Amino acid sequence: MGRTVKEMKTLTALLTWQAILVHARPQKQSAKIIFSNDDVQPLGHGDCDHEKGMLYWLEDGQCYDIGERGPCNFGEVLWFLKTPTCIPQNEVPNTKTTNELCNDDGLIYWPENGLCYSLLTQGPCPEGYWLELANSTSAEAQCVPQPCEDVELEVFWPESCKCISANSTNQGYGPDDVCGPGSELVWSPYGEGVCICKDNYYSDEEGNCFEIGSVGPCKDGRIWGIANGTIACIDNYNEIRVFDLIPANNPNGIPKSRTTQTQRCHVDENGKCRKTLNLRNRFGDSENFTSWIAGFERRGSEECKTPVCDGDMLPWLDGRCYQLASTGPCQDGSWLVLDSVVDGEPVLKCKSKKCSDGIWWPKTCSCIKNPVLLKAQSLDFTNIPNFVSPCDANEQILLNPYGDGICGCKDNHDRDTDGKCYEIGKQGPCDENEVFNSEDGVTSCIDAANLLTGSLI
Known about the structure:
By secondary structure, the chain is mostly beta strands. Helix content is 8%, strand content 30%. It is built from 4 helices and 30 strands. The strands form 15 sheets. Strands 1-2 form a two-stranded antiparallel ribbon. A two-stranded antiparallel sheet has the order 3-4. A two-stranded antiparallel ribbon has the order 5-6. A hairpin with a 2-residue loop joins strand 21 and strand 22. The protein is elongated and about 115 Å long. Mean pLDDT is 75; it is low at 1-44, 239-243, 248-255, 278-284, 371-379 and 453-457.
């Protein structure tokens, strides 16, 4: 049976695709698509040149052309379905395009060499680059630089143009800051971070992650569990053990990868990747794969830019600017404060307020009650009878970036080298006929007679 050049190219691409499916693994990337490897025979078995379309037939130890009759019966041709096998000639899957053959198993076709590759692997790209989805409509990929140094430990968060720890918060930002408790971060097909629930955690309708067997969002003594293949609040019978509610691990014992594809999740209306119970690793057909990638949207731009904030506002992980010691993006009862400084960059966190109706005073480890926090983050005690301020006469209680109360100079005052606050333009600590002045943070005494209008700061 003769074959055209076009058929040979299609068969070669299919054969190479099958080889990648069975045993190919990127050298430096552990993020990969996981498939079952039961009943698989490597194509390289024997001395057959599989790149030229040759298959090894175990029964007689000979090499045969794929797509030819070879050792098969009349009306059959040799094909590769996990192992070399004979299939009816009219069942040869020659009606699909090369793209579809790759997409059937969640791979991307690379037209420059006719091979199939997993997204977010080096594939045909240079060192330090990986394959990233370029067009979800036609499932096209492109080689781009890896945005993070270690793509297993970090993911890129486009709203802040930063690489964020994927599953820990040892320092800097972590998944709890961008996703909420019980979450971790995985890579989307576009090479961006996406929120997903941790192992044995599943999300409710609002996208909050809760551990299986815990109270979670449930009430009336019910627990967060699995019932009839769905996640729901179920009755807490004493005979139900927590580990009975937890889905079994990967039967192959293969460690999970940090990609949305191997995590078997789909983007929901909250923008989080929701895990689906009992979803097969293999997509089965190209339509399923293209539908899956179509659920993702690229959030960043080609040139990532952090927002420029006005005044003393700072950028947060959602790409917006907020005032420190304000509720900002945080939930009720929490506020945005400075947590630490890492590599010269401020790290902001949403933390619970220590005082519900006052200011935390660290010197006494107690709350100063009754004062009302003004918009300018200062307190006015003039209308509070019998209140004794912990600060000096020319000072007021302010909030520092960490959310603690401190004593700061009042408006139009500055702190001199003796540690006290003095009003600018007044004598203060200066000699007679001199006034207190401050310029560029440096205080001094100047001659009042030579004082020019507008020279005071």
